[in-house]
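$ run holo --ligand "zinc ion" --emit tokens
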Amino acid sequence: MLAFVLLALPSVGLSDDRTVIHPGFNLFSPQQDIELGKKASTQVPRQFAILNNKRVDQYLQRLGTRLAAHAPGYKYPYQYRCIDSETINAFALPGGFVYINRGVIENADNEAQLAAVMAHETAHVALRHGTSQATKAYAAEAGLNIVGALIGGNTATSLMAQLLGGVGVPIAFLKMSRTDESQADILGAQILHDAGYDPQAMADFYEKLGNLPQPAEFFSDHPSPEHRIERIDQEVDRLNGAPANATHDSREFKAIKRYVKSLPPPPSKPVGPVADVDAGGPAIPSTEYASFTNGEFTLAYPDNWKSQAQYGGASFAPERGVINDAQGNAAMAYGVIVSVFAPQDISGNTPTLEQANKELIASLEQSNPKLSVMRAAESTTLGGQPALSTYLQADSPAGGAEAEWLVTTLRPNGLFYIICIAPQKNYDAYGSAFRAVIHSVRFPN
Ligand SMILES: [Zn+2]
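-- output --
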């Protein structure tokens, strides 16, 4: 029966033993991928230097279109642009917006190696990794029962509003998982093969990058590319090697590489995912973390923030995260405050978590009359203990509304609490950092 079923299928794709990749769970539609990618692409020039060179972009577009024709799934309007950075990196936004650093062109030995990086990014788009990551981030929050007023309801539409509402390219679109990277390598090798290139070029380029004195940014999440090379080699075997008359190089690539190398050097200001969220505002949170402990608790915080120990607690904020409010007092506009609150023992009984949480919020309201509860307390955990999560809103010292995410748990010395603070309009850029801080909290036994 099996043989019959196989024979009944069209022969295409059966001529080799290629790995079949199934896209991950995704709340969004392909049309929403395009809408999200288009909006995020308008934010790219804020965070990255765009080369804006017609000759280079037209070449990348021709090469990309040749690859995209062999990308499975939804036919996105793929668009390829060059970023003016000498670091070897590339990224793709949902819906087909692909960006290649000039450093990739300058370091590729031949067209097939450049095509390999572009095929990898094209695969991220085809497999819808950006919106799949956003879906996963949403699911993680939903699992914690913290789907609050800040992120709206539980539909893709309100999630889109959240993703579109922030300033900057959503982190979910820039940070892929290890599995995503591996899938993009495998599908990328297949796309490369089907577009008439030797898929081995991908492994060759990775090997070259692995031998550079400075590890390439392309591998920032994967310090050792050996495993990836091994998996690509395996896929090349499954594809039965290079297609007949495979393209390795082109005269056009050689000319473009020479041309790009002749262009003025990129702006010296380092560009990358860490960039100003808005003029004068702090840099967006790093995705690398530093750790803090004072014996009472430990947590991790973005390593571009500064920690400051305070009695029983600590504060964590980026540079320019603490600003002067209208009264000239230093106030945190962006960051995290950790402290312990001593509930009043009115009844003579030890207060419950709910009572202590209510009392803390009342005391916060006293010092800040504009404070309001956006979404009532919901059960969660903090450091493995029962905890409450509450969303608050206040006036931001930076102007406009401020979103505050409060998480509390009872400790022997009182109510341990964390408040994550950001202006409402920038909350999207801080959400994943806040979640990481909250999830990292541990208490000694
Ligand atoms: Zn990738």
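-- notes --
Residues 1-14, 144-154, 269-279 have pLDDT under 50 and may be disordered.
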